[in-house]
Design brief:
Length: 345
């Protein structure tokens, strides 16, 4: 049996192991084997590394983890006639059921039973990954390979940002983690007036400035009223993107939205929230939960925006060879980074 290198959650404990594991079998009909070139660490991978309560109840062990990657087609199963060996691709990490009402209606992002690559089945922190053909996505010529490695969170950001019309609007982004940083750049690119991004981490506030925020502020130190005055804003933010999963951030956002404002919520809260719903009702606010990406319209838009000048390269702050994966995870866990890339070659 041929072997390959992989980062594996072997036992119920903190960390990951670099191991030799069996290479996936030859692709069956409508499957594609992809050789991984670069992978990126997601917040989800950090939860898995930390072996927190969510990871403990979700992961079958042992498991090859990881789901953000770029690579090339290594082999195609029967019936895959539109990809060639060597085609540069990434993969959609939600394997949808193809049977539920939403899947049948073509709304795969609303599938009731998605299975997560690198969470519930073998992932991309490996030399090779096997995926169903519908989850394999061709990367257009001219797209930077590192950017292609983060199409997954970039797609989360695009899905969040493009849910509402941003042209000429004032946008508040709470949370400048990698996805909030990319939302900041997209809101700028598509024509928002002011984009204010908040965080409580100084490094991330600096990154938000670099990504094009009109103002990047420390939510713990600055009043939103002051920010609005500084920008000459009279009424409130028209659009909110909640990208932190932090209750205080959501409360702060609800306190400075205009009447009729629209909010996309991507950040995942770890406990039930204590918020005043009258803030939402009396201002006629629209709240929209965002999960994953629209398959595959979000990535179509991502590609088009990159081709027309969207620049998110600065969100990638660190790169490590596979052998230094521990340092890569430490960097990501420290919060002193944007996206961290692991090179598999
Ligand atoms: P991240 O955890 O790196 O970013 C969150 C940021 O919020 C951090 O920089 C943190 O300092 C900041 N923050 C904390 N308290 C704050 C406050 N009071 N005000 C403003 N900022 C504050 O995560 P990420 O990878 O960018 O992901 C963002 C969120 O989206 C996370 O909650 C993640 O779990 C979630 N997520 C959701 C989906 C989805 O499909 N819905 C997909 C991926 C990630
Ligand atoms: Zn489904």
């Amino acid at each position: 049996m041929q072997k390959m290198r992989a980062l594996v959650k072997e036992r119920a404990e903190v960390g990951l192991q670099l191991q030799e594991v069996p290479r996936p079998a030859a692709p069956a009909a409508q499957e594609v084997l992809v050789k991984v070139h670069k992978a990126a660490i997601c917040g989800t991978d950090v939860h898995i590394w930390n072996w927190d309560a969510w990871a403990q109840k979700t992961l079958p062990l042992p498991l090859v983890v990881g789901h953000e990657f770029v690579g090339e087609v290594a082999a195609c199963g029967a019936g895959v006639d539109d990809l060639e060996i060597g085609t540069r691709v990434t993969g959609e990490g939600h394997i949808t059921c193809a049977r539920c009402r939403n899947c049948l209606a073509g709304k795969r992002h609303l599938c009731i039973k998605p299975r997560g690559v690198g969470v519930e089945r073998a992932g991309a922190f490996a030399d090779f990954i096997l995926l169903p053909r519908p989850n394999v996505y061709r990367i257009a010529a001219g797209i930077d390979t590192e950017v292609a490695a983060i199409y997954d969170p970039l797609g989360n950001a695009a899905h969040t940002a493009l849910e509402f019309d941003l042209v000429g609007e004032d946008v508040l982004v709470t949370g400048a983690g990698p996805i909030g940083l990319m939302v900041t750049a997209i809101a700028r690119h598509v024509g928002a007036r002011h984009v204010v991004t908040t965080d409580v981490n100084p490094q991330r506030i600096q990154l938000a400035k670099a990504m094009g925020a009109t103002l990047a502020v420390n939510a713990a130190q600055v009043e939103m009223k002051t920010v609005m005055q500084q920008l000459g804003m009279q009424e409130g933010f028209d659009i909110g993107f909640e990208m932190s999963g932090n209750e205080a951030a959501l409360r702060q956002m609800l306190g400075c939205l205009n009447h009729g404002a629209k909010v996309s919520l991507l950040g995942i809260f770890t406990q039930p929230l204590n918020i005043d719903w009258n803030d939402i009702i009396l201002k006629g606010i629209t709240m929209r939960g965002i999960y994953g990406r629209k398959m595959f319209d979000t990535w179509y838009k991502v590609t088009s925006m990159l081709q027309s000048g969207l620049d998110i390269a600065k969100v990638i702050t660190h790169r490590y060879p596979l052998q230094e994966f521990r340092t890569a995870f430490e960097q990501m866990r420290s919060g002193k980074s944007g996206k961290v890339i692991i090179d598999w070659r």
